[in-house]
Amino acid sequence: MDFLTELAVDKIGFGLACIANLFFFLLTLATRVKNLPKSLLLSWSLLNTIWAGYYIFTAVAPYSSTLSISLELGRNLLLLLFLLSALGNAQQTLWQLLQKGSVQLLIVVMSGWTALCVFQLLSTNLIFTGSLAICILQLSLLEAIYRRAAAERWQYKPLVLGITVCALFDFVLLAESAMFGQVDNQLWSARGFVYAGIIPLLIISVRRVQAWGINVYVSRDIVLQSSLVLAAGCYLCLIAVAGFYIRYIGGNWSNLLQTAFWVLGFAMLAILLLSGAVRRRLKVFIEKHFFANKFDYRQKWLELTRQLKLIDLSKTEQYQTVLYAWLNAIGYQRGCLIQLDEQKNFNQLAIIGRGKLNPDELVLLKHYVQQFEAKHWIVDLSDNKDPFSQQHQLNNIDIQLIVPIYSDTLLWGLCLMNAPDVDRQHLNWELRDYLMLVSEQISSYLLLMQTSEQLSENAQFVAFSRMSAFIVHDLKNVKAQIDLLLTNSIKHRRNPEFIDDSFETLAAMQKRLENMLSQLSNKQIAAANNSVFTAAAVVTEVVTQRCASKSPTPVLNISNDGQLSVDKERFASVLFHLIDNAQHATADTGTIKIDITTDEHNLIVQINDSGCGMSEEFIQQRLFKPFDSTKGNAGMGIGAYDALHFAKQHEGQLMVSSKEGIGTTFTLVLPLH
């Protein structure tokens, strides 16, 4: 409590002046423009900050110490240089300003006067009298600026007004001090408050003056916080004055009464600063009376964008996130997001801060849909003059704003919003346009989410269809083996070796059918079953058993054999489809050659035919496109696609070269085991 008892009003005033000038310094420093007025204004505000801070922490009488005199005259000199630069060209440099005779004379006189004051070669009365001349010079320069501004006078008016107030206050203070030989304590206590109070005028002016290009930006939150700090400072001053008065008249009870008053006063201040309702009311007051727009649209749009980025299309609470972003866009706490089906029934997608729609609200919304379905109209139910509000009893309605959501020209749904009376935004042209813009932005996300769900379902069907196509493709292989088995059974049915081979073939087909049924049950393609085998043996088996029944019969040439570590059945299936495609493209009198060779790391299988060939355009656009077949209903269009996918899956290659009317060569390259 020692600090409270020593609390002085002048300290509080200079504290506010120090904070205000520091804030103005940082605000101006953040601008990118570089010119002489800005530099001098920065220097003056920084020196004012130091000047105010000096008087906070010292008990030295003004104009009585070397540092006090230096700070007073230094800030006056900087202010005069700033005013002289404001009278000239904003693009001039400091060197150009210093080359002027009037400026040089001013610096010499101010330097000599400072030396006389610092070395105490003058009496106190003369020091105060000389400082009066500086105030008169400041006032004359301010008058010149205001007069020369002419049509741009409104830009300079806050600056001239603010600095003039300070200059006149200093003139009165110095005049009385020169008369009585000392500074008046009451006027001195008010000096800090005066210098703190002119900062808003300076901010307005430097933003207006286009010649300087200092475009400062002050957000609503900064104004709110600054207003709270200023109000708290004024409140503390009142507490201090009242506390000293109580001490003065309190007699024996003075210390007790003063302490109790200060404790209760600080408690009341804490309650007011921490009260959400007070802060909201102050913010609404500031936005209504100090800003042209209802919202800080840059900040609101950034917040809306950040909220919408949080939407996760894979989670069920995505609509809750959308509604929260919508409510936060205007600072509301309660809302409901609903969608209309084809029968105009309401599907509640998300609810925040309220219960489900009650029967009265459902009736009201049905009337809204009937009346405004095609009008893109936002309704404010708190507006007693609105005809729609007058048609309904609103006692059981927890809705203020009804915002429509459209998909093209059709009403997709509604967003219902409400808030306590202190936070409510009354619908006007600005809020209506803002809500329509937000509605368009959010509705695009809602439609994207709905489309994403449909695409996800379609993708599952496509994946299942693609899997079914591969299975049908494999079934064709099984059928080809059965056809071959039946064809050979006519000649070899009594041959024991043929019967043994038939059972082995049937067992392989039974295993393949089990794999296909498993894929259909699990809705996914079976994992690869790799094994190590000799490539030439599998190729020979495919040529002699699966492809021998068609013409022309392939001719196999094995230069070098090698071992592979892949899915044997899949490898055989890929070769069969490549050879089968070659047979379909080649006349019965043509030729098909299969060459097997190896290099240092790979097995190379070349399938060369003398068929009709393919154009380069067909190879690029259609050959490896799934479900695109030249065989009509006889083909599935996935043979070449499956072969290419198989080669890439095993870090190999499938290359094709072809000329129309001459033939085609497929080259399958797979890494050796």
From TrEMBL:
Molecular function terms, GO-annotated: protein histidine kinase activity
InterPro entries tied to this protein: HATPase_C_sf, HATPase_dom, His_kinase_dom, Sig_transdc_His_kin-like_C, XrtA/PrsK
Catalytic activity reported: ATP + protein L-histidine = ADP + protein N-phospho-L-histidine
Broadest EC class assigned to this enzyme: transferase
Family annotation (Pfam families): HATPase_c (PF02518)
SUPFAM superfamilies linked: ATPase domain of HSP90 chaperone/DNA topoisomerase II/histidine kinase
UniProt keyword list: Kinase, Membrane, Phosphoprotein, Transferase, Transmembrane, Transmembrane helix
Transmembrane segments: 12-29, 41-61, 73-90, 158-175, 187-206, 227-248, 260-278
Highest taxon listed in the record's lineage: Bacteria
Domain Histidine kinase: 470-673
Keyword Phosphoprotein: yes
EC identifiers of the protein: 2.7.13.3
NCBIfam families hit by this protein: PEP_his_kin (TIGR02916)
Protein name: histidine kinase
